[in-house]
Write a structure and sequence with these properties.
Layout: E1 7-12, H1 25-34, E2 39-48, E3 52-58, E4 61-69, H2 78-102, E5 107-111, H3 117-127, E6 131-135, H4 150-162, E7 166-168, H5 171-179, E8 186-188, H6 212-221, E9 227-230, H7 236-245, E10 252-256, H8 260-269, E11 273-275, H9 284-291, E12 296-299, E13 313-316, H10 321-333, H11 341-346, H12 349-352, H13 354-371
Parallel strand pairs: 1-2, 1-5, 2-4, 5-6, 6-7, 7-8, 9-10, 11-12, 12-13
Antiparallel strand pairs: 3-4
Amino acid sequence: MDNSKLHVLFISSWYPNKKNPLLGIFVKRHASAVAKLCNTSSIYIYSDKTNSIEEEVEDGVYTIRIGYKQIAYNIPLVSTFVKMSRYFKAYKKAIDLYIKKKGSPDIVNLNVIFPVGIMALYMKRELSIPYIVTEHWTGYFEEDGRYKGVLMKLLTKRVVNKASAVVTVSNDLKNKMIEKGLNNQYTVISNIVDTELFNIPAERKLTDTAILRSFQKVHKQFNNTELIIVGNGSGRESLQEYSKELGLDDSVQFVGEKTTFELVTLLQQASVFILFSNYETQAIVLLESLCCGTPVITTNVAGVREYITSENGILIEPKDELQLSSSMISVIQNKDRFKDSRNIRASVVALVNGDTIAKQFLAVYNKVLSRGN
């Protein structure tokens, strides 16, 4: 370990684990990028069937995961108190283990404020370790609506108030947090895309993606089009049934959850990627598509619009299926509009690659530590 480097400890409300290997994967990517410039560690606590402790180095990040035993009963207030007590004890155990192995960190990078923000407050008060916040959560947007309740709002405001700096993954998220009265010094740093992996293919193949009803209109006019739906959401079966009702059995593929490498291939083969969301903090898969040189059709919503230009995609209004289908038809009929894959990739690649983001975080850490808070 190079002791001349900053020691950074990531703590997060979400982080990949054996129960959910994709939970908070974007937090892990930030930690892995920072590990190229700093001595970086990560702590994650979660409920499990039994108590457990894992220690390993993952992509240069010394990682401690502690599972605490799940609550076997549901008694209002009592269950919540017992759960939070076990959570706090497990976190304190992890912090003690980390300090024993690595010493005290120079700075803590707190990701997703609720509920782990309480541990950042604890470390600042008891150990005099400053922390920054990196927020990814969509709950601050009215369309999501999960930022509510006295406890959540009190804890969030206190954590933001005591933080030495706040990082958000998009300008829209920053503005929404400020609108909620969560004031601090903000910096916007993107989520990371593996820009070496998500790259322009040697040869591009014509495929089309869309939302079912809009795609039906497109397919009637262009019967050689194909829709590929990726993911295993809870509504997949009903969506498959609806596809049959629309007569799209032969032109729609439900391919389920895909590995990163499989997703790269799908994005490289697509002629356009479609994200029809009502809100986002930052859509990583959209950025991955652009890094592959694949244009996008997406909604004019927070966390998305700041990356779209006339040269890399089309912005449409949320829930406007007619606009969605007409935009797909426009892409098909005007094949030369987005023919420059390198230009599409260049529109975001410098913003989202790990080296750039690691340097941005290091600049925030150094600024905080130079102020002595």
